[in-house]
Design brief:
372 residues; alpha+beta; Phosphorylase Kinase, domain 1; Aminoglycoside 3'-phosphotransferase, Chain: A, domain 2; six-stranded mixed beta sheet; two-stranded antiparallel sheet
């Protein structure tokens, strides 16, 4: 059994250290290194025992009844691993207490791998698209609604409430303080939700397939954060990968990779290329809005200010995608985005670094004034 050399005191870590020692079968002393997370409140640790390392995950359970995120993580993780897909093997799990030990997928995110090189992007992303095609081909078999803790289907209602309204509440109002009422965007949101969502589907998708959830280790790609997988449009994952603000792929390469995906995997989905492109365009807009909602929520409500740095690019990309849809399909949203870009530009001229970083201060001042 490994003995503990030193680690930061954290509830539940003793259990993981003991289990890691049993898994590794070593007698060396254990060293613990806390790992930084992204938007999640879960805690990750690298557990060293001799020359080997494992990942410890502590994820407090939210739901006492029904399927919790921890249950989905275990069920979907085991399912994907059984299909030969490149996810870390879950070596120990106590989903009830939120304790997991995982195979170590390393420290190098696809984001950092790409940004440190900025070469051979087409080749690198060709491999990622191949992995995505394999995910969409293998994952549906045996995937059941009971795996999902957070709605099993990406239907229009889910799109409307969880992506489009998320954008309005957490970004437009919560981050920019614009006070846009629900009815102002309802016609466009209803149309976009119908275009992006699916009332039924035999396909599944990851829903957060982007460069911070893909690792590169030993010339192999690994996929993380799969617990949100559900039934819905595979095109959503492709959109998430290509419009990823963390990497900022050139538009020409994005367009080329759409064709690469279609040629290798998209045609298997039983739709024409034209129908696939239409679905891709719709879910790309939905993802644009979801991303901005997430950055606004994480940057302002959660105080993780680094996420605010990605907002200007994400707004510009949303404006471009609205323009490319053509025919004025979403006029209310297009007008709002134009107003947002103008407002952010005005605030930058007034000294706000990027047009929204003082939003929290403005909100606090407004709440204080209303209470007096």
């Amino acid at each position: 059994m490994c003995s503990i050399m030193s680690y930061h005191n954290f509830s539940g870590l003793d259990d993981l250290v003991e289990k890691a020692g049993s898994i590794s079968g070593g007698s060396e002393k254990v060293r613990i290194a806390p790992l930084s997370g992204d938007g999640s409140d879960r805690k990750f640790f690298r557990i060293f025992c001799g020359s080997s390392s494992l990942i410890g995950l502590i994820s407090p359970r939210v739901r006492k009844d029904g399927t919790d995120e921890n249950d989905s993580y275990l069920l979907i993780g085991n399912h994907l691993h059984s299909k030969g897909l490149p996810v870390p093997h879950i070596l120990y799990a106590d989903a009830g207490r939120g304790r997991f030990i995982l195979e170590d997928a390393g420290d190098l995110h696809l984001q950092n791998f790409v940004l440190s090189r900025r070469k051979n992007l087409e080749s690198i992303y060709g491999h990622v698209v191949t992995m995505l095609g394999a995910l969409h081909a293998r994952a549906p078999e045996g995937f059941v609604p009971e795996f999902c803790f957070d709605s099993p289907l990406y239907d229009p209602c889910f799109v409307y409430e969880r992506e489009l309204e998320y954008f309005r509440n957490s970004f437009v109002n919560g981050c920019l303080d614009l006070e846009i009422a629900p009815d102002e965007l309802r016609p466009d949101f209803e149309a976009l939700a119908e275009a992006a969502g699916m009332w039924r589907s035999s396909f599944v998708f990851h829903r957060d397939f982007q460069s911070r959830n893909i690792m590169v280790r030993r010339a192999r790609l690994w996929l993380l954060d799969f617990q949100g997988m559900r039934f819905g449009p595979p095109a959503y994952d492709l959109a998430s990968l290509l419009i990823d603000p963390y990497v900022r792929l050139p538009m020409r390469l994005q367009d080329k990779l759409v064709s690469v995906y279609w040629s290798s995997a998209g045609w298997r989905q039983g739709v024409s290329k034209g129908d696939f492109i239409r679905k891709f365009s719709a879910v790309r807009l939905a993802r644009d809005l979801q991303v901005l909602g997430a950055f606004g929520f994480l940057g302002i409500a959660k105080g993780k200010r680094r996420f605010l740095d990605y907002i200007p690019f994400a707004v510009d990309q949303l404006a471009l995608h609205l323009l490319r849809t053509g025919q004025g399909q979403y006029p209310h949203l297009a007008k709002l985005v134009s107003d947002i870009r103008r407002r952010m530009a005005e605030l930058r001229l007034k000294g706000d670094e990027d047009g929204f970083k003082n939003s929290k201060d403005r909100n606090n001042q407004a709440q204080k004034a209303r209470s007096q």
